[in-house]
Amino acid sequence: MQGSLPFRNTLLVAFLSIVTSLVAVTSLPSTRVVYYLHTSPAAWNEASKTCSEYGAVLITLPNFPTTNNSVTYVNVNSWNSQMNTLQNGFWTGLYRNSSGNLRWQKCTEYNASVVPPEVTLTPGTCYVSDTSFRLSSQLCNTPRPYICQRDDGQCWFQPYVDTMLEDPDTSTAHSDVTTTTDEGDCAKLCRSTVQQNRECWAFNFRGDNCTLLFADDNHKYALHKQSSYYRPQQDHTAYVKICTGGWVTTLKATATDLSPTPQDENCTVTTSSDWDDAVCYCECDQPPVILEAESLVMTIEEKVDKIVQELHVDPDNTSSTRRKKESAEDSRPSAQGIGYFGVAFLIAIFGGIFLMDLNIFVAHAANFWRYIKSKNTSDC
Ligand SMILES: *[C@@H]1O[C@H](CO)[C@@H](O)[C@H](O)[C@H]1NC(C)=O
Ligand SMILES: *[C@@H]1O[C@H](CO)[C@@H](O)[C@H](O)[C@H]1NC(C)=O
Ligand SMILES: *[C@@H]1O[C@H](CO)[C@@H](O)[C@H](O)[C@H]1NC(C)=O
Ligand SMILES: *[C@@H]1O[C@H](CO)[C@@H](O)[C@H](O)[C@H]1NC(C)=O
Ligand SMILES: *[C@@H]1O[C@H](CO)[C@@H](O)[C@H](O)[C@H]1NC(C)=O
Ligand SMILES: *[C@@H]1O[C@H](CO)[C@@H](O)[C@H](O)[C@H]1NC(C)=O
C-alpha cells in the first residue's frame, strides 16, 4: 500500500497547497475537544478552578450547533446519557465580568445570535444550562454539576469495513475524489480540508480512490449511525471523523470559593488559535486514549506512587503465580495511559544510567578503535 516516493511527494505538495489555500480563506477544521461531566456539584469559581487543574475550562458554546452536536455524541457514546439527568442545570463557562460584559471562559466574546436565548432572568452573574443548552443566570455560589472541556489533539476516524457512505443531500453535502494509495493520506486530507465552509466529516476508501464527504452538520455521519447514509459495499471502507470524546467523573472540587461573583479571566495574554497539524497520523483508525480527569489532576509523585503500587507483586500471593503464564489484557485508557507513563519513566531511569556511563563507553570504544586501526596498519 506504499506509494512510490516521487508520487507521495507530489501528493504532499498538492495536499499542502490545498490546505494553505483553503484554510487561509475559510474557517478552520475541527480539532478534538473532549468533555468531562462532573457530577459532584460545586460553586462556579470552584468548578472553574477544578477544570483548570487539568488544562480544561468550563464548557463554552461560541459555536452553538457545533458544541451541541459534539456533546450529544459524547452523551450517547461515553456518558451513558447521564447528561439527561441534569435537569436542574449545570455550569457553563458563560459569566458576566466585572465590567458587566458577558463572555465565555477562554476569553471568547459572547454572541447572542448563535446561542439559544435565556429561559429566565434570575439575578446572578454565572450561567447554567439545561439539557437543551438553554442558558440562565444564577448566583455563582450555588453548587451545580458542571462540564469541563479540554483541547486534546486531532480527530480520529472510525472505520466501517465493507461499507460505503453516501449522502443524497447534495444541497448540504458534497464529495470530492482524490487518488491516493494510502488511507493515512486520505485521512490527512479529510482532517484538514474545508470547502465552502463545509468540513470533511467522512471519507470512503477503495483501492486507490479516496472520496471525501463534506457536510454542514458537525459529526453528521457519526450522529446518524443507523441511517441510510451507510450502504453495504464490498471492498470499500468508510471512515467517519470523530472530534470528541469524554468521561463522567465524580472528582470533588479541591478549592473552596463561595464568592457570589465570578473571577475575571486575564485576557491580556492572547492565546494563538493556530490549527495544529504537527501530529502523528499513524493509527488514524484507533480511538485515541482519553485520560480520565482523576489521572489528569495527579501530580508526578502521585503517578509514580500509583505505578509502584501497580508494579508491586506480593511473592506470597498464589494467584500471582497462577497468573504467571497468562496475560490479562487491560484496555482501560487510564491503564494504558499509566502504562505509557510507566514506560517513559523506565526509559528515563535506564536512559539516565546509560547516559551517565556514556563517557566510559565512549572511552572504551575509542580505545578499541585505536586498537583495530593499529592492527590494520601493522597488517599492511
Ligand atoms: C442539539 O443536537 C441534537 C442532535 O443533533 C438535536 O436533536 C437538538 O435539536 C439540538 N438542540 C438544539 C437546541 O438545536
Ligand atoms: C470584560 O469584557 C469586555 C469585553 O467582553 C472587556 O473589554 C473588558 O476588559 C472585560 N473586563 C475585565 C475586567 O476583564
Ligand atoms: C454573531 O454571529 C453571527 C452568526 O454567525 C454573525 O453573523 C455575527 O457577525 C456575529 N457577531 C459578532 C459580534 O461576532
Ligand atoms: C476510482 O474513481 C474513478 C473515477 O471516479 C473510477 O473510474 C475508478 O474505477 C475508481 N477506482 C477504483 C479502484 O474504485
Ligand atoms: C495578565 O497577564 C499579563 C501577561 O502575562 C500580566 O502582565 C498581568 O499582570 C496579568 N494580570 C493579572 C491581573 O493577572
Ligand atoms: C492477593 O491477590 C488478590 C488479587 O490480586 C488480592 O485481592 C489480595 O489482597 C492479595 N493478597 C495479599 C496477601 O496480598
From TrEMBL:
This is C-type lectin domain-containing protein. It comes from Littorina saxatilis. The chain crosses the membrane at residues 338-366. Residues 148-243 form the Apple domain. Pfam families: Lectin_C (PF00059). Keywords: Membrane, Signal, Transmembrane, Transmembrane helix. InterPro entries: C-type_lectin-like, C-type_lectin-like/link_sf, CTDL_fold, Pan_app. Residues 35-149 form the C-type lectin domain. Gene3D superfamilies: Mannose-Binding Protein A, subunit A. Residues 1-21 form the signal peptide. SMART domains: CLECT. It comes from the Eukaryota.
